C-alpha cells in the first residue's frame, strides 16, 4: 500500500498516511481562511492507521453544526498540518500543500462556497455546497 508523508515547514512535525485519500476538498469558511492565512483550506481525508512523528500544539474548534475539530500545529514553525474530528479518530484530514506534491489529486468537493472569493475558480466537476453538507 502506497504511503505519503506530509510535513511542516521546518520538518519537526510529520504525518504518514497510507493509500489513496478518501476525499479531497476545499473549505472557504472564514475559520479556515483565518487558520490557513489563505482564501481557502485544501484538505485530504485518510483512514487510519496513520503515524505522527514530532511534537504538535493542539487547538480545539467547534464548527457551525457543533462538531469539534482538533487541529495540530507545529510549535516551532506554526504550520497547521492536520486535524481530526472528536469522536471520529479513525480518520484524519491533512493539509494538501504539506505533501509538497504538485501531482496530488484535485479537490472534488467545495464547502462554504458562500464564502468563496469570487476570483477563486474550482476545478471542473467539483461539487460545491453553499455551507457544510453534513
UniProtKB/TrEMBL annotation:
PROSITE patterns: CENP_V_GFA (PS51891). Pfam families: GFA (PF04828). Keywords: Lyase, Metal-binding, Zinc. Residues 1-113 form the CENP-V/GFA domain. The keyword Zinc applies. The keyword Lyase applies. Belongs to the Gfa family. PANTHER family: CENP-V_GFA DOMAIN-CONTAINING PROTEIN-RELATED, GFA DOMAIN-CONTAINING PROTEIN. This is GFA family protein.
Amino acid at each position: 500500500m502506497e504511503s505519503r508523508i506530509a510535513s511542516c515547514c521546518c520538518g519537526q512535525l510529520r504525518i504518514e498516511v497510507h493509500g489513496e485519500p478518501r476525499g479531497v476538498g476545499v473549505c472557504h469558511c472564514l475559520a479556515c481562511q483565518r487558520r490557513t492565512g489563505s482564501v481557502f483550506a485544501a484538505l485530504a481525508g485518510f483512514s487510519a492507521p496513520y503515524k505522527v512523528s514530532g511534537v504538535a500544539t493542539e487547538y480545539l474548534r467547534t464548527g457551525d453544526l457543533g462538531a469539534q475539530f482538533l487541529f495540530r500545529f507545529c510549535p516551532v514553525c506554526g504550520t497547521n498540518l492536520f486535524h481530526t474530528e472528536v469522536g471520529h479518530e479513525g480518520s484524519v484530514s491533512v493539509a494538501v500543500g504539506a505533501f509538497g506534491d504538485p501531482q496530488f489529486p484535485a479537490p472534488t468537493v467545495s464547502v462554504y462556497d458562500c464564502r468563496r472569493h469570487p476570483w477563486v475558480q474550482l476545478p471542473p466537476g467539483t461539487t460545491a455546497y453553499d455551507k457544510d453538507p453534513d
